[in-house]
Amino acid sequence: MTPLREHLLADMQAQNLPEGTQNRYVLEVATLARCCRKSPDLVAGDELTEFLSRRQKELSPADYLVAVDAIKFFFTETLGRVWRTPPASEPKSGSELRRRMIQDMRLRNLSPKTQEEYIRWVRKFAEFWGRSPAQLGPEEIRTWLVHLVETEKKSISTYKVAAASLRFVYVQTLGQEWALRFIPLPKMEKRLPDILSPEEVAELLSVSLTLRELAILSATYAGGLRTTEVSRLKVTDIDSRRMTLKIVQGKGAKDRYVGLSQRLLEELRKYWKTCRPVTWLFPNRANSGPISADSVRRICSKAAQSAGFNKTVNPRTLRHCFATHLLERGESLSKIQVALGHRSLRTTSIYARVATSTVCAMESPLDRLPELQ
Q1: Which strands sit side by side in the sheet containing 254-259, from one edge to the other?
Q2: The pLDDT of residue 68
């Protein structure tokens, strides 16, 4: 038992807390340490806010109040700190502006992840100035966005999410139309994806992998799946009669079907006979839910290192390879668009810029020159 835990138990016993309450408090503080991956006495304010926000979504209202009481007791009684209620531990209605913003995001059916990011960035903006966004104007917005780029050195993609969150709260929730003009979204960098050759993909899948790891990477490449899509596959999504794989609520909250490769089906059958998954095709180690997207990325990275690749390879690389290899074999962009789940053919057309069937379609004029003396 660690000294910190002994101190917490002593404090609870000194106040004659029931044994059941003591166990709940110890468990909640341990959960805080595990989620933040550090000793609980080293958890910063932002980390505590995000932790309580996550627990609010995971627990019932009654259990959430117990969790807040546990963390509050630990910080005030054991660590002797002043307790300031983080925004995430407010009642679910929250402040009026926060409540209205959440309602507006739900009315527009934004994904839970997008809602979480928007709330997080608006909160950071308010904390930077120490005031509600309703009391701040164009100059404060500009100063904070400049701070993100020049001081915090945020990437363009991160800055874009921050700017979009301010656009939403000012235009949709506060009804300030000037924000559309005053908060421009940055021009994004256009980069082409790295592509593995079919031989390199075969080499990647030939390294020493478990049946589970091979099935995950094979499914990603065979169906052109996103990382979250392959991680959330269920056993019932496989239809061996129609030879289809159902992707449930992929990006944009859209369902779609992709063709089920015969070779993939054989790999999945070998895997199923050994591991016998029940609900999730690839469950986590605790068998309490699907494998995490980070775990899928680690599996892919480990396979790439074993194959000796110098280039960066991740699950998204396999999705790009799926589309590029199909295009090089003569499949139409419209069919590839459906398989990838793209809303616009314009998004899919990027693969025409990396496929050898188009990039190398013309003979270089250098090859037609007479031999140089």
Answers
A1: 238-239, 244-250, 254-259
A2: 84
**What single-letter amino acid sits at 299?**
I
- Find the helix or strand (DSSP H, E) in which 255 lies: strand 254-259
**Domain finish residue from 56, 89, 122:** 89
Question: 220 and 211 in contact (C-beta within 8 Å)?
Answer: no
Which residue pairs, CB below 8 angstroms and at least 24 apart, start in 253-260? 253/109, 253/111, 254/341, 256/338, 256/341, 258/223, 258/224, 258/225, 258/339, 259/223, 259/339, 260/222, 260/223
CA 204 from centroid of its chain's CA atoms:
24
Q: Are residue 262 and residue 148 in the same domain, yes or no?
A: no
Q: Is residue 366 part of a domain?
A: no
Domain membership of residue 158 as a residue range: 96-182
Torsion sign, CA atoms 63, 65, 68, 70: negative
Same-domain status, 165 and 20: no
Its pTM surpasses 0.70: no
For residues 94 and 168, give the distance between their C-alpha atoms in angstroms, rounded to a whole number: 18
Closest of 205, 203, 260 to residue 233, by C-alpha = 260
AA letter at 289: G
β-partners of residue 148 are none
Domain count, the chain: 3
**How many other CB atoms sit within 10 Å of the CB of residue 130?**
7
Tokens of 168: 């939403």
Tell whether 8 and 124 lie within a shared domain.
no
Whether 354 and 262 map to the same domain: the answer is yes
For Cα atoms 296, 302, 307, give the angle at the middle one, nearest 5 degrees: 130
Record the tokens describing residue 143, joined without a space. 């100063």
pLDDT, tens digit (0-9, with 9 covering 90-100), for 107-140: 888 888 888 899 999 999 998 888 889 888 888 9
CA distance 132 to 123: 9
CATH code for the domain of 159: 1.10.150.130
Report the distance separating Cα 319 and Cα 354, nearest Å: 13
